[in-house]
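Onboarding guide, step 5: your first structure request.
Type a short instruction followed by the sequence, for example:

Predict the 3D structure of this protein.
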Amino acid sequence: MTDNVQSVGLPDERPPANTVGPIAWLRNNLFNSWYNAILTILVIGLLGSAIPPFLNWLLIRAHGFESTSAVCRQDASGACWGFISEKLRFIMFGMFPWEQQWRPLVTIGIFIALLVASCDRRFWKPWLGLVWAAGLALVAVLMWGGVLGLTYVENTLWGGLPLTIILSVIGLAVAFPLSILLALGRRSNMPAVKVLCVTYIELIRGVPLISLLFMASVMLPLFLPNGVSIDKLLRAQIAFILFAAAYMAEAIRGGLQAIPKGQYEAADGLGLSYWQKMRKIVLPQALAVAIPPLVNTFISFFKDTSLVIIIGLYDLLGTAKAALSDPSWRGFYREAYLFIGVIYWIFCFSMSKYSQKLERDLNRGHRR
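The system replies with structure tokens like these:
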């Protein structure tokens, strides 16, 4: 029997006009039901009534960076960017001596360079730790001074963006390994270790950060022996580390629980020790799973550094508030908070986007 069937290709045809293009996208995403259509119209109306006045205040009727407070008060219909240019160095560097403010500026550059290098997976080598140690030592020299001909500057004069970055970056860097140990301890089979870790995590998570800062600033000196004192900035840094470690430990514990039991059994079958099993098999997978909650903690922790104002330290938000206390510029809070908000957004958005990229890269083998 001869097979006389011949395949004949169908001519190419364009998809239906109602399934592609911007009209189809609007229909499928914004007007796919009557209540979505109402919500879309309401949102468009709200944006239409809010955006033009905002742009008018922000750009069209705004006063330039050279404007004075007197000029801005005569015409208050626009933003006064003269406030930002006048108070920029105070907001960014706090009470650091004016002629020495290149030092905190270089410090910010060092931290950003270290963070950017650490985000590149090609640099995840043991020598990266040495680079960080050298970078932090250089930061200490720049900020404190007292050597290499640099003027000594007490840390009570530190403030602005360098203080925010120091508290958040060093706090997270030290808290991260501590949180791993706490997460492993909480899942340990040794009752004493487990109880100790659970007690620590629940105790720290049960109180607000502002209470820890208050305890570190006010209560802790009362329990120290006479003649013994701990620097206020160091006490605040320790409080941040303890707080961040407890929250990150819970995020990592969630990642550990997500690892299938077979992974543990396979590692045991290979004859690996406990620490080899955790370091080579379990923790890499658990940390990849825990990236989203960890990044939430990072972002929250970065913003929580503004709480140090209650113990007399002026971070980025604190210096902005202090700048508004100047009688000449009192009342220009919208410009100040908008400027600070943009800086916070740049850092937080960068962390969020990098975490998404890292999550995609590390989960590449699990895609279907």
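Each response can be followed by summary notes, for example: The beta strands are 159-160, 314-315.
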